Amino acid sequence: MESIVDQTITVIVILILATFSLFVSVPTYGQNQSEGQQLQQTEEKPLPVLLVHGYAEDAAVWKKWEDMLRKDGIQFFTVTFKDSDDKCGSAKQHATELEKMVQNVEEESGSQKINIVGYSKGGLDARIFLDITDTKDIASLIMIGTPNAGSIVAETNNVCSPAVFDMRPGANATKAVINPNTKYYTIAGDWMPLTHGNPMIPGNDDGLVSVDSVESQQYFQRLGRSEHGHAELLSEEEYQMSKDILLGRK
């Protein structure tokens, strides 16, 4: 009799322990899965970024940004236009080359989407590219000091043509249509705001491009304004304004 009782008690204990184990394992598994998902999201790499220089410049203008991008673990690629004049090519010529460059970046990085940062006319080059290709591969375009509605300063000379023609008010390059697959952001320079900067330019400006021109389209999202002149717009301050976008936090 005692043997049967002992066996019965043993079976009951085993069943209780098995049931308890099953009960506690369910929430534990769910918690581990959640933590794993969070870890995966945290460790997800930022999208690579293509850096497009501006009028009468080359890739060397990105030197400061290159150091900061490396520090933040963001893969970057600078642009050197080879099929057209690197410093003075038209926005349409540069846009055609950008299509090839984006494909190369995707192949080299293994990413299906990338970000673009365009400085000055580089923003116009990128806008034309987004317009004529209707690509779905560009997550965001950040335009820094870009004359999106032109600059009257570009009307005073023909230096570095045909690029200079694209920066004049009313130029075709300023009329690029939105690509609905991409988010557009702006950073403008508000140089000497108390005196409204360059007296040649109506309103506030960075000495070459007005704030209103940079922020001219309603679909642009403003990341901020600095008090830097046009030539100083690739400083750490502008980088910090862009950082959340480049790291995928926005």
CATH classification class of the largest domain? Alpha Beta
Helices and strands, in N-to-C order? HEHEHEHEHEHEH
Q: Termini separation (Å)? A: 72 Å
CATH topology of the largest domain: Rossmann fold
Helix content: 40-55%
Low-confidence stretches: 1-5, 7-42
Q: Give the count of structural domains.
A: 2
Structural class: alpha/beta
Characterization of this structure:
- The chain is of the alpha/beta class and about 250 residues long.
- It has two domains: about 45 residues; about 200 residues, Alpha/Beta hydrolase fold, catalytic domain (Rossmann fold), CATH 3.40.50.1820.
- Helices cover about 40% and strands about 15% of the residues.
- Strand 5, helix 6 and strand 6 form a beta-alpha-beta unit.
- Helix 3 packs across helix 4.
- The longest helix has about 40 residues.
- The radius of gyration is 27 Å and the shape is globular.
Notable characteristics:
alpha/beta; Rossmann fold; disordered N terminus
